[in-house]
Amino acid sequence: MMTPQRWQQVKQIFQSALEQPPGERSGYLHSACGEDDALRDEVQSLIRSHEGDPSFIDEPAEQSVAVAASEHFATGIKGQRIGPYQLTDIIAAGGMGAVYAAVRADDAYQKRVAIKLIRPGANIHDPKKRREILRRFRTERQALALLDHPNLAKLLDGGTTDDGLPYLVMDYIDGQPVDVHCDAQKLSITDRLRLFQHICDAVSYAHRNLVVHRDLKPNNILVTPDGHPKLLDFGIAKILGADDTDDSTNRTLTGVQPMTPRYASPEQITGGAITTATDVYSLGVVLYELLTGHRPYGLDTVTDRDLAAVICERNPIEPSLVVTRTETILDAEGAARRSITPDDVSRCRAGHPDKLRRELAGDLDNIVLKALRKEPERRYASVEQFSDDIDRYLTGLPVSARKDTFTYRTAKFIRRNKLGVTATATIVIAFVLGIVGTASQARVAAHERDVANTNMVRAQDAEQQAAAEAEMANRVADYLVNLFDIPDPLRLGEPDAARGVQMTAGEMLRLGAERASAEFNDRPDIHAALLNAIGRVYRNLGACDDAIRVLSAALDAERRSASPDPSREADILFHLGAVHLDQGKPELAEPPLLESLAILEHLPESDAAALARGYAIRGDLRFARGDYEAAESDCRDAIDVLDETGEPDHPDAAHYRGRLARIVAERGRYDEALELARAAVEQLRRIHGDRHPNVADAMGELGRLLMSPGGDYDAARQLLHDAIDIHRDLLGPDHPAVATGLNKLAVWLIEQGHYADAIELLNEALAILNRAHEPDHPSILDCLNNLGYASKRVGNLAAAEQAYQNALDLRHETLGNDHPDVAESLNNVAAMRYIAGDYAAAARMIREAFDIRRNRLGDSHPDTIDTGYNLASVLVAAEEYDAAENVFVDLLRTVRLAYGDTHARVTSVMSKLAVVRRYRGDYEGAERAQREAIGLIRQQLPLGGKVLAHALFELARVLKLAGKPVDAIEAVNESVERWRELIPVDNEGLARALLLQAQILIDTNRAADAEPPAREAIGLFRTTLPEDHPLVIESQEALDASAGDTAAH
pTM of the predicted model, to two decimals? Predict the structure, then answer.
């Protein structure tokens, strides 16, 4: 029988035992208890309970204290009256109070109730203790008075005992703790989640009424026989907005906040601010237990001394992983008390460990771990959001919870290690810490050591492994500190210190690689991870050769490792291939990229981001080879993989949408490409803010697409300028990304007729690219191609032909004979042959380009149609009219099928077909076709544009030859007006129309009127054409004729 005197004896020995080292407690108890085995058993029971809850001295574990309370109850409290109620039984007891079953003593009604009183034996004579106990009772009464919810125990009555102590009368709940109920009923994961949502409803209701529970745990959540959860015990609740000025009243006599530490949040452990996020955390612990049967941190094997550090610093094991482990629960003396096995856990849930692991993996892992985040602001913003995410999981919708990002983990490390390092050092630290988890490996090894303590051999092995990993963690830490300590100006007296103050990023990376090779040659796995990190930074800086050297060494190290990591090998292979692709060498990029993707596809659980990245870069590889259909398929696969994760704003998915826009545009679907590009820019800005390299990339692509027909040139210019500024600021003025932006802006200038300015930008871009890449890099070839066009338009035909020919030769060499880019260069060189009057050579090259584009892009692709148009034009110039008409007839059929009868491309082909008929002498057929084309153009383009200006010009030519000068002069006058309206003015088109205008005026005896257009025409032609060009000669003849006729008059 537990008398009050006996309880004091138990409590005194218990408190003294806790002061002994765990290994000496057994001897102490033998001495203190003597032959009294019952006394020793009771103290040991309290010690075991204390190991389950270190705050026991303030709030003893309910089951153990209930033993003492029930004994005391049996000796005098049973039958006692509290107000109108008579106590009948003990329900539970804690450090402060005890809860009793009671009935009305006055027979007013027979309902059974629960009454909470000050626990027998509580030290209420201590003034501080008494104030604390009374404050807690008042808080609980106030909290319960605010609440009325079906899943909350309801406050029925209250009062004061004859001794002046408060009591509370509540609903009597006949139920089991929620964890016991779930296991007894063998509830499935789905049923447990549904039950948990009802608990969330109750807590959310309390929060809406400004009450934070602060002590959520299974023993405070009872489930009735009909399956309804009831939330109990608001004894340490916090009323939000209440007066908290006397913080000491919120703490126990040990100096910590009242709580049950194994369910307490980090801010409760450290004395931080209590908010609704505190309850979110505790609910996360409860859900973790309901789903896994384990506690998040293996706290049953953690000493009191380490408990706070574990809760505040250690990350919980993923639920899907912990259910595959056997956990040994130790008693106060370190002996194994019981074990939790995978079979035990799954038997009460899903029937088999593998099935349970699969069910928990992914979304449920992420949901639980989000609730358990250390920082309150990174948890669910409310219990309602927590419950909503569970509901999304249950209904098959994407959940909001995500794993901690690499960036977040890196930032945490840097905040913990406040090193005065350069930006490059920070980047390297980020990569290294994201990849080399040696410190966490040491902690895992130490945990395995503890778990294995019942098996001496396993314990010794785990001890050795833990020591080895701890040593490795220290070695990696020393490596980082020593590497990034070099730029410290306080070390100027040491070797390398003076140079270190001005050390460049490249020097730091080189030194880092050298030290990694020297210090970790005995650990190939760590060596590989460090070199992989450094190689990736080299790539980001545009130092491709250094990146390849370091990444190749990383791959060698990884393959020497005694414990190779397929994921890491795939990552190294990916970056190695990516650098080769950056260099414009798809033939070298393909083997490592495809090997990387093959590894990821065969891993049982590949990281979605890594797999998506593999598909996306395979798409880049195929794009580089001109296989745009396969590239589009790969890029869409990458986006689908990330979309399946349920994260709506995954940064990689947004980036891949920008790349998909480029591919779709190359396939001729400009509207779709614009939509994708706009979405990518908006999404990336939402994720990264306005100034980020990926945002700049997407802005550049959108700007390029806005220069397509009907685009917004002003918006394009602004986007291109902004993208260049961002790349310069973030990556430096000599980064290849800056050159890519300059090339795009040069295209904009060309489109606007600012050829000299475009040439200046293209030369600047080429200077950057030539320093970064070999001469055959695709970016260099693009610049050469654009330089050739701009040079042609300013009349520097020699420079234009040289640039075009260089691009063609290099593209033939690097891309083969059937790449779409080769077709582009063939078309451009053919244009130079055309200008030179070598129509046969021009036709031969354009035919080759036409065949390439039909085979690789399809007949209806805009580039194919444009090339066919150019071919027919050359054939006309070569006077091969039948062949030209056949090409135009085929093109007309193709564009009508692909775009419909009223599309602008249809009118362009019809207009050119009329030209062929004119050359063949069929003036009537030519006039009819040309007028039909002009009618369609006026419907499609109210402002006309270049298409209408050219069609009117061709109509005037037909009418002149058909002997209809009045109609001809009307048509050519409008053509000249339309050419002048263009912004920028097309000088060549305007010059041709002016020449024709002058010729028609001369033919109609209006020579005086012909001189101004003839003089303007020759001036425009001379800006781009040599003196012996037929058009220059014709213009001079017209000018001479008008001048001679004027002189005769």
Answer: 0.45
